[in-house]
Input
Amino acid sequence: MQRFTRGIMISSRKGDRIMLATIVGSVLLVSVLAGCKSGMPPPRMEAYLGPAVEKGEATNIGDVALPGAGGQTGLIVINDTTAPGSAPALSEETIIGLANVLRHRIEKTVPLKIVKAVQGDGLTPRQNRGQLLQLAEREGFEYVVLAIFSSTEWEAPTYLSFSGVFNPGGSSDNNPGFETDNFARVELALLHGTGGQVLVQADGQAWATLYRLNVTQKSNVYPVVFRQQQQNPIYPESDDNAHDVLRGVSADDAMNQALMKFQEAWNQRVPR
Output
């Protein structure tokens, strides 16, 4: 068993739940089709920083060195819900957990030491990076990694079998429930804390699907979350936190993709 935070549980339980592995293929197909009904959230980095490359920035960015392991680099995390059609915000517990995970993964991905992670709750999408630089100055950050989490969500009724066999057409063995697809985007940008130049930028996207019954009833197989990759299903502790688990899982996968692209972009900046 593994947890991102107390509210996000990953489990590979045996017994009755093992049969759910047989429906992964169907779930993935349904989730892909659901992507036609909803889409990834729009990029939000420009809403907070303005254009990624401002006038003159393209010519002097090479003069700004990447931070070393000993530099004062901070991580600022924003859970953006201001775009039209945005999903509800991640719980405070989940966003803090994701920020801690991101901090450690950044340090493993590139030679960068994050001295502190803070939430940018007071930052608003003004298309101006001045507010970010003010926060960096208050915190004493020489460099800043800005991470923006956002997502959209689509939910529709479906039929779920207590036996764990997925059958969207419905039958006498099936019970009404809901399918919820969450589409997450995580954007990363490394900025100079004083000049505000964007040195490295990356974007990751992912989705996950939640199945739950529409009645309060004890079940050994629901609620359950499937991620886009063929991995073990994830079991929220209850319906109360099921949507937050869904959003956290989707965000975690998007974060991993963003980090891979961040590493590629970093390596392109390193002198050879």
